Amino acid sequence: MEVMMRKAATGGQRRPGGALLGAALLLLLGFFQAASSIHFEVKDENNKTCIMADLSINFSVEYETVSKKVIPALFLLSEKALVNKNSSTCGKENISAPLLAIQFGDQQLRMNFTRNGLRYQVAELVFIYDLSDKVLFPDASDNGTKEVSSQNTDISANNNSTYKCSNPHLIKMGKVNATFHNIKIEAFVTNNTYSLKETACSEDVTPTVAPTPAPITPKPTVLPTPLPPPSVGQYSVTGPSGMCILAKMGLQLNISYSKKDNKDDLYVFNIDPKDTHYNGTCQNASATLSLSSNKTNLEFQFALNTSTNQFYLARVTLNTTLPSEAKDPNVQVANGSLMYLKTTARKSYRCNAKQTLQITSNFSINTFELQVQAFDVVGEKFGSAVECQLDENGMLVPIVVGAALAGLVLIVLIAYLIGRKRSHAGYQTI
Asked: What are the structural domain ranges in the chain?
């Protein structure tokens, strides 16, 4: 059996054109962003492809440290990942099923496929990880190999079609969360390439809303007075090797909740830097900033991807208390499969405009005048800043308007000079 691996990339292409406004619109619509994944193929002894997969996966693995603290290890499917030749197989019809085994470092991911009737599926997802890998699991109290699995993958497609999922798709396996995004998978391939037909995942399908039988006139809603922007606070975390987090930001939290009368409401409040205590931890590939204010504990965890030399916000945890009218006043939410504020190491991420980070379906954070840098903070100062798309768009609009006005003035001036020249040409000297 032969196995192949290559890097695959998908994304928008730049369209040629000289119009500044057209280029501005393209930037505003985000056509220049691209997503990348890793391509895998499994072939049988006759060099026929049976499995194809383009994968991009975020892993979050909870483990216990020597100090008895449970923390998550956050890492991506490595760009150096390879198909495991000894484990991958195309299987035999009615005897054994196809299997894709991916090896990266001491970690292995297995996809077991089955087919029944008109559909095929990932019947089981297995992840094997080694806690002795001190790069991914620093200070782990256990050095053994762990194996977790799930038979509830929700990855299935019609026969002779490609399973495609652009939005994040989370699969939980014990203490491991695997978040797939921008992926394509097909098993039982017939023509050595992806089928033209596609089966979309549930996350990519827009739900259909049933029409109401009759129009209902809504009662007038009294909207709460908007909160003013929060004050900007400055925070830092220092470890044995120096500063690992430097942040400046204003934070506004939005929490949707149900009241005792079963009506929904929104609780919005600002984090006041004057009443906030902060601390954190520094590790080789993760850094944590914890903010404590009144009855609110907010924690940001950043991860470092050593393969791409980039850091990003990977996990947010919130503990707070809602107003007394809430059905359940105690809130405890967390999401460890994020990828916000992604920036090259030794640089900082800056976004002066209001930016909303959606953490869970009922919890989001508005940031104001944000600038943050995790890992490699030199001299306790921010590195060169990478601007967010919102700031770039804000700068682009005045440039486009100014250029348009300058062009209009130039056109009027040229028309005036041409008209004046023609008017003089109609007279002769006597």
From this structure: 3-14+28-203, 233-390
Beta carbons within 8 Å of 247's beta carbon, 6+ residues apart: 234, 235, 236, 289, 370, 371, 372, 373
pLDDT average per 10 residues of sequence, the chain (430 residues): 43 40 37 62 92 94 90 90 92 82 94 87 93 91 91 91 92 92 92 92 68 51 69 94 94 93 91 93 92 91 88 93 92 88 91 90 93 91 88 57 72 77 56
- Residue 66 CA neighbour count, 13 Å, CB half: 5
- Of 326, 355, 363, 322, the residue nearest 230 (C-alpha): 355
Query: What 3-state DSSP class applies to 201?
Result: coil
What class, spelled out in words, does domain 3-14+28-203 have in CATH?
Answer: mainly beta
Give the whole-angstrom CA distance, residue 294 versus residue 292: 7
Angle at the Cα of 184 (from 105 to 362), degrees rounded to 5?
90
Sign of the torsion angle spanned by Cα atoms 65, 69, 70, 76: negative
How far is residue 395's CA from residue 214's CA, in Å, rounded to a whole number? 46
Fold match, 3-14+28-203 / 233-390 = yes
Reported pTM: 0.48
Q: Are 41 and 185 in contact (CB under 8 A)?
A: no
Q: How far is CA 284 from CA 51, 130, 311, 325, 393, in A?
A: 36, 17, 12, 44, 35
Q: How far apart are CA 48 and CA 58, in angstroms?
A: 30
Identify the H or E element spanning 24: helix 20-29
Tokens of 86: 């000894």
Burial class (CB in 10 A: 0-12, 13-18, 19+), 274: exposed
Residue 155 near residue 163 (C-beta atoms within 8 A)? yes
Specify whether the CB–CB gap between 189 and 197 falls below 8 A: no
CATH number corresponding to 233-390: 2.40.160.110
